[in-house]
Design brief:
mainly alpha
Length: 83
């Protein structure tokens, strides 16, 4: 269902629909990208839309940085144990 300009963008922590089961990791991954698609398909984004997407982008950047750091630490530990 497309969002109207007056509708607030759904938050990733929104309550699931009654028929939906507990959210899975893949659902959590899809929500931000669906919000981005809605934003890009809207004809004229509002200042609020831009702020929401900016926050979403920063959150995604932080998640990517955490994954990179975690992987780098694992590689570092593995290389030390092999020496």
């Amino acid at each position: 269902m497309p969002l109207k300009k007056s509708d607030p963008l759904p938050m990733s922590g929104a309550a699931p629909a009654p028929e939906a089961s507990a959210p899975t990791e893949s659902d959590d991954f899809r929500v931000p990208w669906l919000r981005l698609a809605d934003f890009l398909l809207s004809s004229t984004p509002t200042a609020n839309d831009i702020a929401v997407i900016e926050a979403l982008a920063r959150k995604e950047q932080d998640a990517i940085k955490r994954r990179i750091r975690r992987t780098a630490e694992q590689v570092k530990r593995q290389s030390k144990s092999k020496q």
